[in-house]
Amino acid sequence: MQKKKVGLVSLGCAKNLVDSEGLLAALVRSGYELTTSPAEAEIIIVNTCGFIEAAKEESIDTILEMATYKEKGRCRKLVVTGCLGQRYPQAIAREIPEVDAVLGTGALERLPQVLAQLETGRRVVAVEAPGGLTGGPRILATRPGTAYLKIAEGCNHRCSYCVIPQLRGPLRSRPEEEVVAEARSLARRGAKEIILVAQDTTSYGLDLYGEARLPALLKKLAACAEIEWLRLLYLYPERITSELLTTMAEEPKICRYFDIPLQHVNDRLLKAMGRASRQEQVVRLLAGIRDLLPEAALRTTFIVGFPGETEAEFAELVSFVRREKFDWVGAFAYSAEEGTPAAALPGQIPEEEKTRRRDELLRVQRHISLERNRAWLGKKLAVLIEEAGEGRGRGRCFRQAPEVDGVTFVRGRGLGPGQFVQVTIDRAGLYDLGGRVENEPTQ
């Protein structure tokens, strides 16, 4: 019997991509053939994001776009999975009749069984307690040399603007030995860089061991000879301990890269947001990082236009960004999400004003990012090559996480994906770096 072709579109964050990779592996095990062409796919799966309004819109637009392949392509079944499916299962089934099945985050493991059910002509809505895939086989969808590793699922924080606990459930850490085993497996498959992800990586272990165990996990991972680079994403500021900083300083395999979502710095707004950190603590933390690791790259995200944010409080945030000089800043206009405490707060700010504040903050940061990049002119950096052509390539250095930061353009012979090369930086732009290879690539 000819295998049915399945295409999968993955939206949203790296954690969702890990889920998508697990779904791809489950599909292959169940006898399906994968295709990257929606026009060729008989079954199309959209693994959605539903975090904020912009993400919901992108997910819905993608679902509707894929639905057109029921008319112009070979698609016979359209399946929606992930966070939007967890959040609005009945609405999706009701409002988009082209959708044949909806699976929430806690029902992802049931995908093969649901596809079998669809053969009977039924429509299926499968929503259970929120969750996600952790562990198990994956078909990697990242660029050569890099793989994400989910060390925990869910979140115990209760930020007033956030729906993640509703979509992913409470914190559920994976056992250390399981994480280490998967990291080794990924490295043997060619991953030179392992990127640890969770909703909050710094809370890793609290539920399993009664204490945060990220430093201990990092030491075990760094001891694996197969692993060359470790990168951490999603570090909550109040859980970045001196032990974690010392571990990152002592282990050369760990990238000196800090992704710390701060969201704001005004103490009144931080309290209203349900955030545990306060500005004075954050200032001390950043100073401590720079004292210990002066060349560390710092990335953060901020929310502007939170209900009641005054011009003075926004100006306080802008001044903080100018003073602290982050390498990278992401800024989001506040999105009032139904079911969150913040959506019911007075002082909701008009969309155009939120957009103005976001654009102003990013305009200020652009000059800082350029300045931070220019500081690397004339210096040597290790670069992991992701794409290569004749005499040139493109990759990332320790300062650059996939997708969200810039890249490093490399000039040199014999470059290939998945190689590390030493590069002397001679160009620095707003986002990207450029340079020439100083030695032959290493496999």
Give a short overview.
The protein is an alpha/beta fold. It contains 15 helices and 19 strands. Helix content is 35%, strand content 21%.
Describe this structure in words.
This protein has 443 residues and is an alpha/beta fold. It folds into 4 domains: 5-126, Rossmann fold (3-Layer(aba) Sandwich); 142-255, Transcription Regulator spoIIAA (2-Layer Sandwich); 281-375, Transcription Regulator spoIIAA, CATH 3.30.750; 380-437, Nucleic acid-binding proteins (OB fold (Dihydrolipoamide Acetyltransferase, E2P), Beta Barrel), CATH 2.40.50. 35% of the residues lie in helices and 21% in strands. It has 15 helices and 19 strands. It has helices spanning 14-29, 53-67, 69-72, 83-87, 89-95, 111-118, 164-168, 176-188, 206-209, 214-222, 242-250, 267-273, 279-292, 311-324, 351-374; strands at 5-10, 33-34, 43-48, 77-82, 101-103, 124-126, 146-150, 152-153, 172-173, 193-197, 229-232, 257-259, 297-304, 328-333, 380-389, 392-396, 408-411, 420-428, 433-437. The strands form 5 sheets. It has a 6-stranded parallel sheet, with helices on both faces. The protein has a 5-stranded mixed β-barrel with strand order 15-16-17-19-18. A 3-stranded parallel sheet has the order 7-10-11.
H/I helix tally: 15
Low-confidence stretches: none
Q: What structural class is derived from the secondary structure elements? A: alpha/beta
CATH class of the largest domain: Alpha Beta
Termini Cα gap: 41 Å
The share of residues in extended strands comes to 15-25%
The percent range for helix content is 25-40%
Radius of gyration from CA coordinates = 22 Å
Query: How do the strands line up in the largest sheet?
Result: 2-1-3-4-5-6
Count all strands and give the number: 19
- CATH fold annotation of the largest domain: Rossmann fold
CATH superfamily of the largest domain: Methylthiotransferase, N-terminal domain
Q: Architecture of the largest domain, according to CATH? A: 3-Layer(aba) Sandwich
Q: What's the overall geometry? A: globular
- How is the main sheet built? 6 strands, parallel
**Total domain count:** 4
* Mean model confidence by pLDDT: 91
